[in-house]
Amino acid sequence: MAQRASTASEESAQVSKDLSAQVIKDLHERMVRIRLFETEAGKLMEAGKLPGFLHLYVGQEAVAAGVMAALRDDDQITSTHRGHGHAVAKGVGLREMYAELYGRVTGACLGRGGSMHINDVTRGMLGANGIVGAGVPIAVGAAFAARYKGEDSVAVTFFGDGATNIGAFHEGANMAAILDLPVVFVCENNGYAEFTPQSKHMLLTDVADRAAAYGMPSVIVDGMDAVAVHRAAVEAVERARSGGGPMMIEAKTYRFFDHQGVKGLRHPYRSDDEVAEWKARDPIDLIETRAVADGTATRAELDDTWQRTRDEIAEAIAYAEASPLPDTADLLLNVYSG
Amino acid sequence: MTTLTEAQAVAPNSTARKLSYVKAFNEGLAQAMREDENVFVAGEDVAGYGGVFRMFDNLLDEFGPRRMIDTPISEAALVGLGVGAAARGLRPVVDLMFMDFIGVCLDQIVNQAAKMKYMFGGSVSVPLTITTASGAGLGAAAQHSQSLEAWLAHVPGLKVVMPSDAYTAKGLTVSAIRDDNPVVVMLNKVLLGSSCEVPEEIYGIPLGQAHTARHGSDVTVIALGRMVGEALAAADELAAEGVEIEVIDPRTVQPLDTETMFTSVRRTNRVLVVHEAVTFGGLGAEIAAQIQDAAFDYLDAPVLRIGAPFSPVPFSPVLEKAYVPDRDRIAQGCRRLLERS
Predict the structure, then answer these.
(1) pTM of the entire structure?
(2) How distant is the alpha carbon of residue A42 from its chain centre?
(3) How far apart are alpha carbons B168 and B190 in whole angstroms?
(4) What is this model's ipTM?
(5) Beta strand spans in chain A (E)
(6) Which residue positions in chain B have pLDDT lower than 50?
(7) Chain A residues close to B117, C-beta within 8 Å
(8) Shortest Cα distance from B16 to chain A (angstroms)?
(9) Tens-digit pLDDT profile for residues A126-162
(10) Residue A246 CA, distance from chain mean position
(11) B40 and A131: CB-CB below 8 Å?
């Protein structure tokens, strides 16, 4: 059974005091970068400037920030189709990300991948993925490669609650466990598989219970609390890095926007009250309030982070808009190697 | 067979000796593993047992459990393991045992392995080799006998090779492992025990290059995999009737060397395509369409296709024999083509 980490805010607040001010600021900055990247992308989509689909991550920032702050650049991640947050938190360039959303040749995928396939192998970001659950076995392979080469990097695979109903998740979890590989399984349980609530797609309350089936330890954390996520991630990552094998973290979180786009609420699959309840526990508000209260950061410092990031985002969007489109003569580029 | 000449051309100092198809594969794989430390093998029963077709015999002894990995029966995770490891610089060889099992892991092959380089803007390569056994003829019935090359050849980003004898089994396997793209090596189950001369040293056969297995002037027969041997047998039979058949073995069906075919067809003016797979939607249709496009004015008869009927592979030996094309059907097809003015 999953180890139930405390989600009481008092306890987390105590933990936050134990973390250095630098870590708290780091978590905060990663979350602000995701929030602004995403809200601006949402506006661009609403303005009709972006082709394709956009799966926004707003609300779940504490998970990406908390985990990525526990990783090194050479650690690998595989992501979901809600992958911008993971990419931003892993350090992928905002310019390349926006340019990709615009389908420009300067994009992270040269305009060939779009929102659902943003990657940066130099940052250990092995791609968002348009296929639910498909990144799980790929992370297992990345972890296998690390061990094969005698490196001590780890692989983290992010997936949603819905993905744990697909075979690739179960096969990947069992494979990682039986091969004893350095993989951290991070379930971002936002309560919905697209538009279907968890109660209608599995009989479990806690996805973490699934880890037990593979002999894998697990922990449940408050996915709105970056400090709690970070604490669990540090433990899981260090355990994997030191040869302790795979572990699962289930972060209970929530997406503030719709499954796709900004407002696609054709069917009231969740209530306004429910959304409001979760928004009241905004992960960025949470860390800011606590940081100011315990003296980790001043309001001015936090505001400065927002402003610097806003400027960087505006610059990145301008870069993307000024970037050239791909040359159609290069349509077949990179279908094969060599 | 013309393979001896070609083998000597590839490896002039070779001491050619006869080797079975399965042993030639095994030897090529072992040599590729010796050549590159990044090559490892993962699959069900590949290490301890040596593979259900003995494809991996003795490799555990030489390379140990670090490089020979027995996995759970989990084809999706197995191919995914290969994709992730390949993206991180290794050269995985993952074995799918029976080709029919690709349905279980088609996402990892089609959506992940095949597309990763393209979708990532070229920043990563996936030098993954997938080995599998295809084909009917062993009484293995509908779920263990299929030839699904058309599914895979249809997907941009994948390469597909179909060794027709022991010599090509070794050379194509070595090339697949050395290639920076995902390559599916379709070994034919009926051919596993067949032998021909195979050089001892390591050699690769270029991917995407067809081989003219027999020269002739009257009909071009383009044959895939096991059908090459059947076509050569049909050619012997027809030669006795004074008809000279040219037999082309594409060896690689993706990418497909159509130029060699076009050149041949422009000389012979008649063409028959034969494969084990179901005719409908099979590669014969693609090849026929391309020949029509490139050499219509040279054709004295419509391109003829021979393949399996539109049915799952049957179990009963009498039905299975009727199902798979053979030398008689190929010879009859050639005669039909020649009957047209």
Answers:
(1) 0.94
(2) 17
(3) 15
(4) 0.92
(5) 3-4, 76-78, 155-160, 183-189, 192-193, 196-197, 218-222, 247-252
(6) 1-9, 12
(7) 334-337
(8) 31
(9) 999 999 999 999 999 999 999 999 999 999 999 999 9
(10) 18
(11) no
